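Reading a protein record of the kind used here takes little practice once its layout is understood. An example of such a record is reproduced below.
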Amino acid sequence: MVSPSDIADSSHISATIPLAERRKASAHAPGRPDPDDDLPRIVPRRHVGRWLIAAVALLVFAMVVNSVLRNRAFQWDVAGRYFTTAAVLDGLLLTLWLTGLVMVLGFLLGIPLAVMRLSANPVLRTLSWGYVWIFRSTPLLVQLLFWFNIGALYPTLGLGIPFGPEFVTVKTVNLLGPTLTAVIGLTLHEAAYAAEVVRGGILSVDSGQTEAAQALGIGRRRTLRRIVIPQAMRSIVPTAGNMLIGTLKGTSIVSVLAVHDLLYSVQLVYNQTYQVIPLLMVATLWYIAVTTVLSAGQFYVERHYARGSARTLPPTPLQRLRGHVAALRVRLYRATAPDARPAVDGGR
């Protein structure tokens, strides 16, 4: 008589024996059927249309790349010669410095504006709404030209008692140069968008988080700083990354103010050499390189703030590459050794 414990032990032993060895044993055992006879053979679905579309896309991409590389009008040798010149690198450095400074100052001004917009005080809420409405309604170029000609409206700026005497006065023309004008104009413009980004991130947090903090006796400032803002960063970071890339490209507009950014430095060169296309390609390649680095940094920042919401973090590009290499190795192994199958228990 066979006891249940004997059956459990035998099933445990059969589960530990590899499937290939059990198939060999069953093949040699007389009167026993082959276990492969009743197992369905799984054939992967062939996506013919998907591969045709991919082939057409690769063909079009190859044609575009070929036309760009083999077109002599681009003058790639000239572009390579000017790519790392001192004038171009100085303009690139000013562009990076201007982008970083404007983003920092823009968010430092945008965060209080977002808090004012969410305030219960109607005066603060109206003032914040009016600021965002004005600076989002006017083009950036108009704002920059307005600040560049501010001396026509206010020839002098003074510091003193409101509606009273002034103790210190300075001419606006001597105070606001092209670079400072660009910083002020870009900062005020970005602050309006940063305020909406921060406000949207705060509103994305469930109101139950704030109610729970109030029930625990946590103050409003600490609730905002320690509970709401860390969770709102998941919504703020993607949009802020897009703003950063947009600001990097938007700084090229300050060339109308004769600020020596990347585009203006390139313009100074091709105004002397008349080699417009290769110099514009130099600026384009630098913008692409910096944008690529910023996009990679944005990915890792988003991945960092996704730890609290996702059970499994999205794989990094290196992890994806390792996964593709491992899958390719498995396919090659199966193609070279079709009889070798993984040891999977069929539930017998």
Summary: The CA atoms of residues 179 and 259 lie 6 Å apart. The radius of gyration is 32 Å. The longest strand covers residues 166-171.
